[in-house]
Design goal:
The complex is a heterodimer of chains A (112) and B (115). Chain A has no helices and eleven strands. Chain A is mainly β. In chain A, the strands form two sheets. In chain A, strands 2, 4, 5, 9, 10 and 11 form a six-stranded mixed β-sheet that branches. Chain A has a five-stranded antiparallel β-sheet with strand order 1-3-8-7-6, with no helix packed on it. The chains are: A mainly beta (112), B mainly beta (115).
C-alpha cells in the first residue's frame, strides 16, 4: 500500500519568513495530493491540492510543487502570519475522492 | 461540498463499554470514510463505508472491534466496541463531495476518552 513520509515534524519560523514542508510517497500510481491544515481542536481543512498532470499550483501565499519522478511534493507558505500556525498534513491517493494516506504531520509555529 | 456532522462531539467512556458515533451528510454521497486520529498523531483510515454492502477495513482494523453501518447515502455509524484506554482518539468521518473527483471533506470529529 501507499506510504507517505513528511518532514519536518515541527517547524518554527519568524513572521514574514517562508515555510516549506516536504513529503515523499511510495506508490507510483498515486496521482492526487492534497494538503490539509488542522488548527487545535478543529477538523482538517483542505488548503490546496495538486494532480499528477501538474507540476506546480499556487493560491495566494500558498504553493505546492510535485516531482513525479522523484515521488515527492512540497508545500510552500510565503510571508507567514501568526494565523498560519497549525498542523499541516500532506496526503496521497490514486484518485481524488478515494481513501487518503496521510503523512505524519508538521506542526508549524509562526512567531510574531 | 455537502455539510457533514457528527454526534456525539465528545464522550468519556468506561473500559469494556461500546460507543456508536453517527455521521450525517446533508446530500447523498457515494463513499464515506472513517479515520482515527490518536493524540498528537496523524489520521489513519479505519474503513470505507459502502452503501448496501459491508465496509472495507484497512489492515489492523477489524469488523468485530469497529462495526460500521451505512444504511443510506447520507448516513453512517461507527461503533467502537469493548473499549480500552488505547481507543482514546478523535474519530472523524469524511466524504469525497457530491461533484465527483473532489478531495475529502471531514466531519468535526468525535473526541473519545476511555478511562
Amino acid at each position: 500500500g501507499e506510504n507517505v513520509e513528511q518532514h519536518p515534524s515541527t517547524l518554527s519560523v519568524q513572521e514574514g519568513d517562508s515555510a516549506v514542508i516536504k513529503c515523499t510517497y511510495s506508490d507510483s500510481a498515486s496521482n492526487y495530493f492534497p494538503w490539509y491544515k488542522q488548527e487545535l481542536g478543529k477538523r482538517p481543512q483542505l488548503i490546496i491540492d495538486i494532480r499528477s498532470n501538474v507540476g506546480e499550483k499556487k493560491d495566494q501565499r500558498i504553493a505546492v510543487t510535485l516531482n513525479k519522478t522523484a515521488k515527492h511534493f512540497s508545500l510552500h507558505i510565503t510571508e507567514t502570519q501568526p494565523e498560519d500556525s497549525a498542523v499541516y498534513f500532506c496526503a496521497a491517493t490514486r484518485s481524488a475522492g478515494n481513501k487518503l494516506t496521510f503523512g505524519g504531520g508538521t506542526r508549524v509555529l509562526v512567531k510574531p | 461540498s455537502a455539510v457533514i456532522s457528527q454526534k456525539p462531539s465528545r464522550d468519556i467512556c468506561q473500559r469494556g463499554t461500546s460507543l456508536t458515533i453517527q455521521c450525517q451528510v446533508d446530500s447523498q454521497v457515494t463513499m464515506m470514510f472513517w479515520y482515527r486520529q490518536q493524540p498528537g498523531q496523524s489520521l489513519t483510515l479505519i474503513a470505507t463505508a459502502n452503501q448496501g454492502s459491508e465496509a472495507t477495513y484497512e489492515s489492523g482494523f477489524v469488523i468485530d472491534k469497529f462495526p460500521i453501518s451505512r444504511p443510506n447515502l447520507t448516513f453512517s455509524t461507527l461503533t467502537v466496541s469493548n473499549m480500552s484506554p488505547e481507543d482514546s482518539s478523535i474519530y472523524l468521518c469524511s466524504h469525497p463531495g457530491t461533484g465527483g473527483g473532489e478531495t475529502q471533506y471531514f466531519g468535526p470529529g468525535t473526541r473519545l476518552l476511555v478511562l
